[in-house]
Amino acid sequence: MTIREFKRLYRIIEVQLRYGLDDFIPQDPRSELPKKLRKSLFWIKNQYPDKPLGERLRLALQELGPVWIKFGQMMSTRRDLFPPHIADQLALLQDQVAPFDGQLAKRTIEASLGGPVEQWFDDFDEVALASASIAQVHTATMKENGREIVFKVIRPDIRPIIEADIKLMYRMAEIVSRLQPEARRLRPVEVVREYEKTLLDELDLMREAANGIQLRRNFEGDDSLYVPEVFTDYSSVNLLVMERIYGIQVSNLEALKANGTNLKLLSENAVNIFFTQVFRDSFFHADMHPGNIFVSYEHPHDPQWIALDCGIVGTLNRDDKRYLAENLLAFFNRDYRKVAELHVDSGWVPADTNVDAFEVAIRSVCDPIFQKPLCEISFGHVLLNLFNTARRFNMEVQPQLMLLQKTLLYVEGLGRQLYPQLDLWATAKPFLEDWMSRQVGPQAIIDAVKNKAPFWAEKLPELPELLYDSLRQGKVMNQRLDTLYDNFMDSRRNQGKARFYFGIGATMMVCAAILFGDHVTTYPAIAAGSGTVFWLLGWRACRQ
């Protein structure tokens, strides 16, 4: 560990202790060692004993930077795992992080635009509309048409902080891999690498612009999800200019109810939107915490979702989608044998895994979750149990699916807040069955023919020429094969001759040695000369 990394580690520990987060250490005999280590750092005192524990946790994560704030955002959606006084404070990390100076934000915007803001925009507000871990938002209107827009600007000097924390995470992952061989199957280094890519992608707002444009195009004509328009002419790596939207933050249940929003339909639409993104588009919004999700004020009886902040998106290839859908359907149908076999076939568990034992283990974890409303199901606890099951069967973590897993946690958190009685399984199952039927049923064949038809139509006029070329190449290939076979047979005959000559030569040399040992004068020289001649003949046969 380098001096810089050690200093950052000390800084993390110092901030946690300065905010008194050691109060989270439970009263348990197993926690004696952490408590002793805490006492050894006697010079770091809790400076905020009068603040509630939840607020201290939020302030500590906020001070540590974006890597930790992102972690707090994810925890804030799991109200089933954390008490209200913790979850309510963590929810403030979604869009109420302390903003940086508005004048500095304006200078950063002008540097990206290449001129003063007033050249293109009116009514710029230096007071941030919202502030998050990596960027903050300011409002203005466009001079040319009066449209309301928002500027999203990256926090200054944020990259070095992220890179320092990521390096420390790499170091800790390597140490864990070396010290705990059992942890290697969790692939901690690969997990950190995936997290690093996700965070660094968020620093490129042109990537977010492209993601937003793609997501908007995918749902064009679909009233269930609205994605604001992006103005790429004004956007850059450090600045994103997009349409300003007005909606109700999804975490504001009182406002949603006051607006008459159909919460049941809203929740069902959330599930359908998620699975549509995953299975139809292979392109899904992977940062669905409440700070990025709003609900339109319009037509509350048929509510429309509004998605912001497309900096983190996930993609799945065809094999990932097929594997995921088959597993989910097998879970829905309680076909745990199929789940176990799919895990083995995919290589997630070793090929020599006892499928019968694995099936029983999966059944014990998953069977209790069915035929219950969502309010009685904790997917967090289910995932924890599945994790323990995976440890027993040496299942490896798949980093490419971590974004999907995180998004599923977000979807659960939203579902709990909006409509706890939502039957997530009943909502998702018809979608997955329809998708699978289009992948493996008659409709799949029809779709494949439709997709390939333009290509076949383009190549059809060339078919006679392609057929003639194939036949001609086949004839040439046969001639080449005949030539190669003849050469091969000649080579084998020459090698046979060579072995014969070398054998006779060796025999003559042995005879010469025996005769010379018996003090015979003439014959040893004749035998040696003959042996030499046969060896030369053998060498010549090898060269042919």
TrEMBL record:
It comes from the Bacteria. Pfam families: ABC1. ATP binds at L129, A130, S131, A132, S133, I134, A135, Q136, V137, K152. GO terms for biological process: regulation of ubiquinone biosynthetic process; ubiquinone biosynthetic process. The active site is at D287. It is a multi-pass membrane protein. The keyword Lipid biosynthesis does not apply. One of its GO terms (molecular function) is ATP binding. Belongs to the protein kinase superfamily. ADCK protein kinase family. Belongs to the ABC1 family. UbiB subfamily. Pathway: Cofactor biosynthesis; ubiquinone biosynthesis [regulation]. This is Probable protein kinase UbiB. Its main location: membrane.
